[in-house]
Every structure is written in C-alpha cells, then in structure tokens.
Write a structure and sequence with these properties.
Blueprint: E1 3-4, H1 10-19, H2 25-35, H3 48-57, E2 58-59, E3 63-70, E4 76-82, E5 87-95, E6 98-102, E7 106-108, E8 123-126, H4 129-142, E9 153-158, H5 168-178, E10 191-195, H6 199-206, E11 213-217, H7 223-229, H8 238-252, E12 256-262, H9 270-280, E13 285-291, H10 305-317, E14 322-324, H11 338-347
Parallel strand pairs: 1-2, 6-9, 9-10, 10-11, 11-12, 12-13, 13-14
Antiparallel strand pairs: 3-4, 4-5, 5-6, 7-8
The chain binds S-adenosyl-L-homocysteine (SAH).
Length: about 350
C-alpha cells in the first residue's frame, strides 16, 4: 500500500514536501486540497510534474464512496471502499444545525458482542488514521462541504464498525488530524468515541489531552450477565469501567455517556433498571437507551417502544439522566456492520475488486 498523505499532520507534510525538494508553501496547498477531498490530479495549482510524482509515490484519497443508501428520514448510509478492496460503512445523520457522521475504525471487529453484526467475521484489519479521516473527508465532500467554517459535517461519532480503543494509536492520531487548524477542523468537543470498555485504554485516553466525549457500551449492570452478551466483560469488571469513567471526568471535565441496548428478556427488567440506578446515581453521566436493531442470524429481539420508555422512566424517576435514542435509518440497515454484512453476503467474499 502506498503511504497516504491524509495520515500526515501539516507539520509532517511540510517536512515531506521539503524532502522532495519542493517549496514549503506547497505543503499548505496540498494539505488544504487533501482535506477538501481532492485527488492529486485535481490539484491544478501544482505543477504537472509534482502532481505526477505524488500520484506515483503516494495515496491522496484512500477512501471512496462506492454505495449510498438514503433513508426516508434523510439519514444516509455509505459503503466506503479502501484501496486494498476492503469495505467499511458510515452513517450520515442530518440535524437542523448540521450533519453528524458515524465512522468505522476497523474492518470487522474482534470483540464478538452477541447482538452486533460488525464482529460476525472477526477482525480483518485496523484502519489507518488517514483512512478514518478519509471517511470524514469524502462524506463531507459528498454533501458539498469544504474545510474549516465551510465544513458540512460538524460532529463525528466513532460508533461504526470496530472497537476504536482496540486500534488505539490510529484512533488518537485521527482525533488529532481531524481537529487540526487549517484542515476540516472538527473540534474534539464535537467528537464522541464509543468503547465496549477497554479499561486500560480508557485511562490512556484520559491522558491525551483531547476533550472528546467518552461513551461506554454497558448493556448490563451485572458482570455475569454482561459476559454472556459481551465477551470483553471477561477481561474487565463493570466496577473497573466505572472507575475509569470517573478518572476520565476528573482529567477532562467531560461527563460520560453509557449506551444500553435493550434486548428483550436479556437486560430489560426492573431488576436491571434498579441496579443501573445503584451503579450510576450521582455520577456525571447520562444513559442512552437503544432499541436493538435486529441482526439476521442472531436470535435476539428488540423491546417495544413502550417498554423502552418504561425502562427510561424507571431510571429517570430514580434520578438518572436517560433518553431513548431516536431511531434513524432503520429502513437502510442502520446498525453497526449490517450494510457491510449484506454486501459481503451478496458478494460471497469479504473484499471487493474493481
Ligand atoms: N466498539 C464500540 C463502538 C462501535 S458499536 C462499542 O462497542 O461501543 C456502537 C454502538 O452500537 C455500541 O453501543 C454497540 O453496542 C451498538 N450496537 C451494536 N450492534 C447493535 C445493534 N444490532 N442494535 C443496536 N445497537 C447496536
């Protein structure tokens, strides 16, 4: 694979351009153009010979959209192709104040959660920082956005396929690249990272000085029951996860969010709600209840809307802050990994070839 220039910070790009014997100001032009989603051949400010040299030796946009699905509610789902033929997915949610993009951080996932489509075939590979950034850049270009104030994507959630903290270095590098002045420049405060609870990495993240929002997939307040739906629970206890969240709040001042997918008959009873209250009452946190998106081949059912709101009411009346997540894009395989899975099923293979 050729090195992707989207993986470089402005400083790193400048060093490279100087090494290539070019004037340093060229780095600024190339950086801006890359963040606008241009390929080398479209960078007409550059000499033809420089364009050709870059084209031969480096990758510009290492992610491209190969399929889009539009939901009745305006939500759009993208299938992104990577240069090695792998595919990942992203979801664009449109709100009044701007668009939020949900990005993938890995091809597949090795966490193996019982309800999730992303881990069905295990982990294929990590995405590079440039590829994660590439998802944001090409979706932003697709909706007509530019860089800085002209960007159309104003929030990013790392809730697509993969476990971001299992791809820690690329995730942190991506967070720095996407928020750098001069590029697309999305503030860390407008970025949320969702983890299944890799405790050690949650501590590392708290020390990065990146004020992003931390979201943890809890899905059960009982360790033994959590192990049944999330194999990662065998490695970390819920009490350890909560201590890591407390530490995150102390270090960053950011309140944290727990995601809780309501699965019929598994984690949806009053006993579960009451234990959640015991665990979380008084903490600077919020509980986001999600109705399960049923995945083909998994024998798990969602609760009804009424049941979800009843669960929420029980948390709220005990003093927890809780919401039921708005349903978006249900008609287009909205849940993690479902679109890629369908694509793979249809193709009979994990990769695409042009
Ligand atoms: N690996 C990270 C981020 C990716 S998943 C994590 O575990 O948090 C993003 C969220 O979608 C997680 O809360 C995950 O549990 C949830 N999710 C996965 N499959 C789902 C499904 N079929 N229906 C509803 N939510 C799902």
């Amino acid at each position: 694979m050729k090195e992707s220039l989207l993986s470089l910070s402005q400083g790193e790009l400048k060093n490279l351009i100087i090494q290539l014997g070019e004037k340093p100001f060229r780095a600024g032009q190339i950086y801006k153009a890359l963040h606008q989603g241009l390929t080398f051949s479209e960078m007409t400010e550059l000499s033809k010979s420089l364009r050709e040299r870059l084209e031969n030796e480096y990758e510009s946009q290492s992610v491209r959209i190969i399929k889009t699905l539009k939901s009745k509610d305006g939500t759009e789902k993208f299938l992104f192709a990577l240069t090695d033929g792998n595919v990942v997915e992203g979801v664009l949610m449109k709100y009044k104040y701007g668009a939020t993009l949900c990005v993938s951080t890995q091809v597949g996932c090795r966490m193996g959660c019982a309800f999730c489509a992303s881990g069905l075939n295990g982990l294929v590979r990590n995405l590079t920082a440039g590829e994660i950034l590439g998802e944001v850049i090409c979706a932003n270009k697709y909706v007509g956005g530019g860089i800085g104030d002209k960007r159309k994507i104003i929030n990013v959630v790392m809730m697509g396929s993969g476990e971001p903290l299992d791809n820690y270095d690329n995730t942190v590098k991506f967070l720095k690249l996407v928020s750098e002045q001069g590029g697309i420049c999305i503030s860390p405060r407008n970025i949320s990272l969702s983890t299944c609870g890799l405790v050690n990495k949650m501590y590392d993240l708290a020390n990065e000085n990146l004020p992003i929002n931390l979201t943890v997939s809890l899905h059960s307040p009982f360790d033994e029951e959590r192990k049944k739906i999330m194999p990662v629970a065998k490695a970390y206890k819920i009490s350890e996860i909560i201590s890591a969240c407390d530490n995150y709040f102390e270090k960053t001042g950011r309140r944290f969010i727990f995601e809780y997918v309501l699965i019929l008959g598994e984690n949806d009873t009053e006993r579960h709600a009451d234990e959640l209250v015991k665990l979380l009452k008084g903490k600077p946190c919020h509980v986001n209840l999600i109705r399960l998106n049923e995945v083909k081949g998994k024998n798990l059912k969602s609760v009804t809307d009424k049941e979800a709101y009843r669960f929420m009411g029980r948390l709220e009346s005990a003093g927890l802050s809780a919401t039921v997540r708005r349903r978006m894009g249900e008609d287009i395989d909205g849940a993690c990994g479902q679109l890629r899975q369908r694509y793979i099923d249809e193709l009979g293979s994990c990769q695409i070839s042009d």
